[in-house]
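Section 3.1: Structural characterization of target chains.
Under the original work plan, the team committed to producing a structural model for every single-chain target entering the pipeline before any wet-lab resources were allocated. The record below documents one such target. The sequence was received from the expression subgroup and is listed exactly as submitted; it comprises 108 residues.
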Amino acid sequence: MFMTKVTVNSGICGLVSEISVEADEMQTCKVSIVSACDAIKAMEAGLSEVDGYTECFARFSDSEVYKAAEAHCKHLACPVPSGIIKAIEVACGLALPKNAEIVVEKKI
């Protein structure tokens, strides 16, 4: 069993989400979400068990993560769904653990 934890600070909302993914040798993943955001927390029910390989190489429209986001998440720019996919990738050994970053600057 392999475990990965990803913490996503979503930005101006200030709501931090912690995603934990456990993957077995067959790349079956169990996703757990701790979040102050009710919409993100609601996504967890649809992600209790997903195929990691399928999830990481799916089209957005076929991804269980993005289907859950479509059903529950009200903010299209929310980075949490991407963070969930990154956690699945690492837990399944499909990517090395490396931080991702979005840097926002408003220039006048």
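Residues 8 and 22 are 17 Å apart (CA to CA).
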